[in-house]
């Protein structure tokens, strides 16, 4: 490994967005290095391959460079290290945190020629395509010259907010090809339930020796009046816990009205996705395959988290019941990783974000049509999370557990009612399918928490225990 690769091997596993936390890093290779600014400070886009056990994954790093020892104090937290590059000793750092450098990304997007939406996912422009291409959707002017701030919070990617207008979401884990977040956001452009897409950045990533145009980042409208759905739900739960003995409807801060509106917004987005993108019906063979993939996930999770063992029988029966469903199961493009942190409430209503699907799954899998009930199940799980997470490690957990259950039930019911009322299928009438998706999501969460937030592992484990009771 080069000196830079050694530094990256030490830095990458400490990043929130690193998806391979379950196993040590064995190799780090800079697969591509594209200079965007040559000078001081310098800016490069790196595509970095990380080898772990028998898997290799790719990540994007926006690398800032300054002469060694000149990194300003406020950027110290972004430092990756000091190494020799081009014969000079340089401090290299995560340029996402340096507004002097990130301003250039917005400027380049603003200056790009407008293209039609069908250029998204299409081949690179003819001629000699630039290694990093800045592309703007026609009719969407972008105002340059704004400084960015990194959005804080639990993120699988890194989002920069420019002024009060735009969010540039820089995808960290790269899968060759079109990122589903850009694809679906663009397909839904004009919907009141998504943030308007403006532009994107792409590069060619080599796959089997072929260059594949690959999304690096997406620029979309910043919903400035937005409050995160998770934060709103958590506040409602807190209000309930502060009002011992009261029912969720009477405690103040009741969330059920919002949950119902969220259900209706979700149904509207599903209907729009079904209009804009291909739909199908799952064959009985494909249904069995789906059940088998759930079982595979369960096996993997049980091997890593043996506490799942007592529930394997119940979970397996739910997947077997799914495999036996004998009614046609309509499928279409869906969100794929739907939860309260993926929706924001603006003064006009709910807006859905982050159509990337499960961050750790291969992109072909994430782009595959699925049942919209999968998203419904994801959000139902999220109500359970919101109700339970404040009890983790709390001595008041035993007294508050009934209130947690009541809050989750009330909001799950309201969401499902809103979903049916908003034109989606009635979740109540598809319990076998819904239950299998919900179990599968909970098993996914067991793995997710084991790798990312071990102190929250009890949340999905307790939910599985309750579901299986
Ligand atoms: N366009 C936007 N407007 C307002 N807030 C946003 C926007 N995009 C993202 N956010 C905020 O950032 C958080 C993380 O964004 P998300 O797209 O889900 O990133 P990730 O894929 O990294 O998890 C969201 O929960 C939301 O609070
Ligand atoms: O938002 P991401 O695309 O990064 O999704 C991943 O991280 C989520 C946590 O940030 C995780 O969601 C789980 O925790 C949420 C609370 O933090 C909860 O609302 C969700 O229901 C629960 O699944 C998500 O699963 C993961 O893919």
UniProtKB/TrEMBL annotation:
Which pathway is this protein assigned to?
Glycan biosynthesis; glycogen biosynthesis
What superkingdom does the record give? Answer: Bacteria
Q: What is its EC number?
A: 2.7.1.175
Q: What class of enzyme is it?
A: transferase
Which controlled-vocabulary keywords does the entry list?
Answer: ATP-binding, Carbohydrate metabolism, Glycogen biosynthesis, Glycogen metabolism, Kinase, Nucleotide-binding, Transferase
The reaction(s) this protein catalyses? D-maltose + ATP = alpha-maltose 1-phosphate + ADP + H(+)
Q: What GO biological process terms are annotated to this protein in UniProt?
A: glycogen biosynthetic process
- UniProt GO MF annotations: ATP binding; kinase activity
Q: Name one Pfam family in it.
A: Mak_N_cap
**Ranges of residues in domain Aminoglycoside phosphotransferase:** 156-380
- InterPro entries attached here? Aminoglycoside_PTrfase, Kinase-like_dom_sf, Mak_N_cap
Q: Which residues form the Maltokinase N-terminal cap domain?
A: 11-98
The family this protein is said to belong to: Belongs to the aminoglycoside phosphotransferase family.
Q: How does it assemble?
A: Monomer.
What's the protein called, per UniProt?
A: Maltokinase
Phylogenetic classification of the source organism: Bacteria, Bacillati, Actinomycetota, Actinomycetes, Streptosporangiales
């Amino acid at each position: 490994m080069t000196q830079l690769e050694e530094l990256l091997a030490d830095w990458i596993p400490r990043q929130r967005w690193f998806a391979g936390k379950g196993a040590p890093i064995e190799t780090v290779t800079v697969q591509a290095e594209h200079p965007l600014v040559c000078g001081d400070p310098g800016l490069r886009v790196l595509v970095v391959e990380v080898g772990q056990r028998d898997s290799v994954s790719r990540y994007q790093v926006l690398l800032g460079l300054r002469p060694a020892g000149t990194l300003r104090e406020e950027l110290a937290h972004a430092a990756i290290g000091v190494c020799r590059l081009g014969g000079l000793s340089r401090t290299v750092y995560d340029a996402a945190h340096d507004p002097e450098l990130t301003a250039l990304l917005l400027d380049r997007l603003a200056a790009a020629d407008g293209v039609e939406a069908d250029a998204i996912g299409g081949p690179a422009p003819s001629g000699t395509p630039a290694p990093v291409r800045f592309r703007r959707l026609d009719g969407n002017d972008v105002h340059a010259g704004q400084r960015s701030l990194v959005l804080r919070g639990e993120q699988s990617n890194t989002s920069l907010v420019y002024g009060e207008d735009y969010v540039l979401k820089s995808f960290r884990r790269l899968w060759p090809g079109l990122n589903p977040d850009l694809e679906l956001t663009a397909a839904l452009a004009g919907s009141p339930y998504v943030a308007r897409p403006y532009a994107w950045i792409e590069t060619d990533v080599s796959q089997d020796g072929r260059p594949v145009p690959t999304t690096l980042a997406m620029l979309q409208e910043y919903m400035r009046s937005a409050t995160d759905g998770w934060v709103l739900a958590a506040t409602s739960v807190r209000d309930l816990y502060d009002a011992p003995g009261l029912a969720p409807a009477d405690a103040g801060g009741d969330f059920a009205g919002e949950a119902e509106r969220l259900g209706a917004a979700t149904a509207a987005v599903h209907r729009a996705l079904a209009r804009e993108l291909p739909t199908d019906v799952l064959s009985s063979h494909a249904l069995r395959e789906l059940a088998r993939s759930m079982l595979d996930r369960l096996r993997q999770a049980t091997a890593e988290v043996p506490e799942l063992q007592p529930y394997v029988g119940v979970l397996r029966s739910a997947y077997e019941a799914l495999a036996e469903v004998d009614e046609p199961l309509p499928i279409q493009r869906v969100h794929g990783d739907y939860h309260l942190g993926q929706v924001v409430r603006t003064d006009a209503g709910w807006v859905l974000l982050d159509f990337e699907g499960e961050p750790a799954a291969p992109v072909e899998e994430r782009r595959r049509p699925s049942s919209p009930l999968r998203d419904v199940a994801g959000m139902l799980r999220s109500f359970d999370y919101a109700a339970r997470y404040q009890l983790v490690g709390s001595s008041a957990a035993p007294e508050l557990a009934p209130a947690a259950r009541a809050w989750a039930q009330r909001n799950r019911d309201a969401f499902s009612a809103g979903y049916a009322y908003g034109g989606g299928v009635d979740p109540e009438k598809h319990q076998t399918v819904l239950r299998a998706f919900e179990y599968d999501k909970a098993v996914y969460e067991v793995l997710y928490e084991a790798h990312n937030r071990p102190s929250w592992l009890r949340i999905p484990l307790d939910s599985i225990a309750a579901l299986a009771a």
